[in-house]
Amino acid sequence: SWTPETITTSASDVCDLKINGSEIYALYHDNAQVKLAKRPLAGGAWAIENVVAQDSIYHRGTVFFASDNTPYIAFVKGQVTNAELKVYKKTAGAWSLVFSNPCLQFHSSYWSQGQNPTMIQKDGKVYVLYSDNYNVYLTNLNGVPTGLSVAPTALAFGTITAGSSTTKTFTVTNVGTSPVVVQSVNYPTGYAGTFAGGTIAGGASLTVTVTFAPTTSGTFNGVVRMNVDGVCGGYIVNVTGFVCTPPTLTNNLSTTYTNTQTNIPIVASPAGSTFTANGNPITTLNPNLLGVGTHTIAQSFTDANGCSNTLPKTITVIQVPTIANSTGNTCWTNTNITIDANTTLTGSGNLTGAIVNFGTGYNSSADRLVYPAVLFGVTGTFDISTGVLKLTGTATVAQYQQILRTIQYQNISPTPAYGTIKPINFTMGDALPLVPCGNAKAHFYRFVSAIGVSWTDAKTQAEALNYFGMQGYLATIMCSQENGDYQTHQFYNG
């Protein structure tokens, strides 16, 4: 009687049973691997080895041993789609694929039917016989090589930004002696190549350059297919690539700073951006350390998809300008007189404005400040109500020095108050100097018209300003004098 013997409890397809010498072999599939089990004919435990991972559960296969005892395994994955014959050979203890036909065809009603592949050896050559629902095939595994060889069979282009491109190459070799005609070459969306088809002579090779240059962002995976008559599916090269949209970068950096500013916080979007100053990493901006001159500040960011962007910005660090007036007083005697022809300005870079105003004692019915002629494109406006002359325009420090040396005092009263001292301030920039509430030093004020602005927003905006390295703040009126100064001068910028 027959005594059943269990080889495994996980098999889904039993494909073949063979005896070779003193051993018996069983070929089967367990839904994940094609496996080969063996044991001595005399009995004993089964030793099981994995041949290849394979996900199809329907297989027909065979085990064959050549005259030199080299083992072969041939099996058919007999599904309606992706049907394929594969032949594996074991050498030096490892299984390797020696032949495949990925173009088998099975009818939807009979796809699970078919015969196991059969293998024989004749005159030292190993043959495999197999079929699908339409054709019977015989292949000499030791025949003269024919057709094309492609290397590499996959090109990974990685990540590029939209609007850019990159290239890679593969080589097509005619491994036979007869010419092979490539009827056409199909490139997937986003890719183009230098080979569109043609004849490749026996033994010849051709290098194909593939360019990855999509016009939109996203994932671009596909196949470059070289179509040859008689070769099902043609010869293919898998291509993969990803196109990203560079992240938008913003920051709070200005274009001009003074050499006295330190530890300026950098606020940037996206969060996590990194910064360099002249190529050196920074976390805050220190113009005092950079020194007078131009410098490149670069913001960089890479997102989760590997998309990166860099935003360079050139900043200029200027030496804080200083101003010095002549000593003594200038006397007015019934005609316009230059206030100080020896005013001295020092510093680097450009100025965008200056203020000349009466410190105390201004009389709107008598006192005037005169800018006699426009120089270097800088214009001047005198506000009779406040006694402020506002100069506006971009010019160098040296040019503003020449301008300030031309400013004149005029008195239009028919009865001038002779002997009265009129303190006059020269101030660089567009902020008004006031000395309120008994302070020893002037504070510099800008009046900003912003109807409806909240206190919080006003505070934030004020703190974002700077005046020659001094950070702005939202002013608080501390005394009646300061309140009077605001009322007197608040509209000088208008």
Overall description:
The protein is rod-shaped. The chain contains 4 helices and 44 strands. The longest helix is centred in the last third of the chain and has 10 residues, at 480-489. With 494 residues, the chain is mainly β.
Draw up the topology in text.
Elements: E1 13-20, E2 23-29, E3 33-40, E4 47-53, E5 59-65, E6 71-77, E7 84-91, E8 94-101, E9 118-122, E10 125-131, E11 136-140, E12 148-151, E13 154-161, E14 166-174, E15 180-182, E16 184-186, E17 191-193, E18 198-200, E19 205-212, E20 218-219, E21 222-227, E22 235-244, E23 250-251, E24 256-258, E25 264-265, E26 268-269, E27 274-277, E28 280-282, E29 284-285, H1 287-290, E30 293-302, E31 308-318, E32 322-324, E33 337-338, E34 344-346, E35 350-358, E36 367-370, E37 379-383, E38 388-396, H2 397-404, E39 408-411, E40 424-428, E41 432-434, E42 443-445, H3 455-463, E43 466-467, E44 470-471, H4 480-489
Parallel strand pairs: 13-22, 24-31
Antiparallel strand pairs: 1-2, 2-3, 3-4, 5-6, 6-7, 7-8, 9-10, 10-11, 12-14, 14-19, 15-18, 16-21, 17-19, 20-22, 21-22, 23-26, 25-29, 27-28, 27-30, 30-31, 32-34, 33-39, 35-38, 35-40, 36-39, 37-38, 41-42, 43-44
Concise description?
The chain has 494 residues and is mainly β.
User: How many beta-strand segments?
Assistant: 44
Strand content: over 45%
Termini separation: 115 Å
Helix coverage percent of residues?
under 10%
Helix count from the secondary structure assignment: 4
- Tell me the major beta sheet: 5 strands, mixed
Task: Based on Cα principal axes, name the global outline.
Answer: rod-shaped
